[in-house]
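Inputs:
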Amino acid sequence: MLSALELARGLEAGTLSLDDLYERVAERIAEREDEIGAFVNYDLETARADAGRASGPLRGLPLGVKDNIDTGDRPSEYGSPIHAGHRPAVDAAIVALARRAGGAILGKTVTTEFAFFEPGRTRNPHNLEHTPGGSSSGSAAGVAAGFFPLALGTQTGGSVVRPASFCGVAGFKPSFGRLPTVGLKFFSWSLDTLGLFGKGVADVAFGAGALAGRDWRIDGASHGTPHLGFLEPQPWAQADDDMLEAFERARSLALRAGAKVSSVSLPPVFREAFAAHQTIQDYEATRALAAEVDMAAERISPKLRKTLEDGAAISAEDYDAAQETALAARRACAEAMATLDALVTPSAPGAAPFGLASTGSSVFNRLWTLMGVPAVNVPGLVAGNGLPLGIQVLAPFGRDRSALRAASILETAFANG
Amino acid sequence: MLSALELARGLEAGTLSLDDLYERVAERIAEREDEIGAFVNYDLETARADAGRASGPLRGLPLGVKDNIDTGDRPSEYGSPIHAGHRPAVDAAIVALARRAGGAILGKTVTTEFAFFEPGRTRNPHNLEHTPGGSSSGSAAGVAAGFFPLALGTQTGGSVVRPASFCGVAGFKPSFGRLPTVGLKFFSWSLDTLGLFGKGVADVAFGAGALAGRDWRIDGASHGTPHLGFLEPQPWAQADDDMLEAFERARSLALRAGAKVSSVSLPPVFREAFAAHQTIQDYEATRALAAEVDMAAERISPKLRKTLEDGAAISAEDYDAAQETALAARRACAEAMATLDALVTPSAPGAAPFGLASTGSSVFNRLWTLMGVPAVNVPGLVAGNGLPLGIQVLAPFGRDRSALRAASILETAFANG
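Outputs:
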């Protein structure tokens, strides 16, 4: 894998040249892209040329951009045959900001259909018979395969944290609204959140901070001894034995690293909020994709069509009530986290499931997307079958750096453990 | 002017034919479009054909769609030369919903540049030397001129309520999020809100309810005697003598109509919130239009370029603080309105100003856009120079029908007064 921070430092110090970097990337892609299928399209030549003209913190680093995010200079197909060959007029805001920060767009990465559940062709670099997770499949797999040091993804349910966990990379979903979603193909406007994939926690902190224009960097700083709340099992999200073991291991390693550790359970409003996520998502998706349904319903997968039909049956009253529940839960969330630096949960029910027909479950992520709080997948643990397992770190809304710091402490503890 | 409700009833009863309706519209456009300039483009033939196939509550009614809202079957230029001739791949969600409800898209209406302050070519139908208001200039003017019974607009500052007031039509900005903004050219994602123009309050209630899939109709119902709070003058928004007189007249007429009337003043947090609106808007606009700035800054008006430069200088900390202020003010807003059915304020500082170089001021609207509460312009009063004056009715978040009912009572009182 490529560390964005290390590459940026090498480029700055002159110990690495852009030619060397892009050659290395080209080799990795030539070796593995055929079997992994991370890209919808890529263009090494254009990226190398853009990198040569780039300045800013990202210094010409090649970036993967999930294909539900508009790019003005190449197709943006949203994982749907309805939009095959579609060329947006302009870059999405986040792509423009990435270019301003010095990033070079290497390619568009595979998304599930409209960033929902119908898989694309991407395979897990750790075992090609397993899903890479979704919906940001290509971005997570491409970072894991060393195709690019950073990649943009989006999360509506668990589409950043889950594929990061399955692919053994760091994933960071900042607080809702911190990265602009203008130019995203929306699925659920109350939930769709941009996120970033990288090798390690410090890499995504560095990259996301450069995009957000915020001081999120955590490299080189001492993180002290945080107060971490380990979440008690929730009735709606069952972890498998591998994950339960990893979670306990994370707790021991955190203690050993000097963190203060508590067990935290959530008040009942969160159970309602978990259900409210789906009500809000499906109600909004039915409207967000109304044009596609009316124009080309037959080119929408049966899985998504069913969701959109279900969404159409949700009443305005139920939607409003779900939004009210979300609001109440956000207040409860702030209270539940008030004395903590971060909350720790599994990133997913277990390691990447076998097979490519499903991208796995987002039950461990949906609630936190709805809460709008920063979420980080900490890589570094391993399941019995050798596949990666991730631990999810959450912090109060707006305290993104607190989440990143706590995640970094766990990451170091895993590496030393 | 055309009443959407009357037309829909006529079409249902068979006392009006689509041919008659579209002929009448064609005549009005032939008479006045040259001098008013409400449209960027229109297509009577396509609209008539669409209307013939339409079913649903809107029954083939011709609609105006502000040109910052995507249409898949015709250009969407966002009021900017950068996007001249741009053809989106699909309809915006609200356009798809309008078609589902039976509406026929007659044309795209003039917006100021990216729905900010640089005017388009539209003139006020009541006096061609005066601005129609903005940014939804063509939608407001086109309803006033009888080109269409309903038109879509958007409001980030005061772009629905203000032009409705200047053009003497009803304008309705529902609670934030009630109409989907997917497929809108965003300027400020925390503020951009869809709204509707029509002849009277019952017309916009009927139209917006059909789009939202909500029971917002108020025609045929008795509205009782509401408790209306008339807002004390606010330091940030000075009305002229015409408007002060109209506001007092509205109070007397409301009392005479049997409403309970109180004077309401706002706690200090609203002053901060008024300032927060601009911080949030400019910070977000700088990001929403990042691609346009980087691609074609020279084709952005000096006025907007200045705003985007100012926005780029706003720190993340100031933006976050403004969002915190907005959140606190929303809670205070709910409290301030808790015992009221609606709050009443001027819609604008006065009647439409002379000249076309400015679309007037949104000082009476920005705070309420930020609060996300439903806002209605009630037409029917007149300034000394004969131009229309509107009164703004607001209700607590989510109580859209309460705002519409109170607005309807005032509208009737004005008509009877």
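Remarks. Residues 75 and 87 of chain A are 5 Å apart (CA to CA). The mean pLDDT of chain A is 97.
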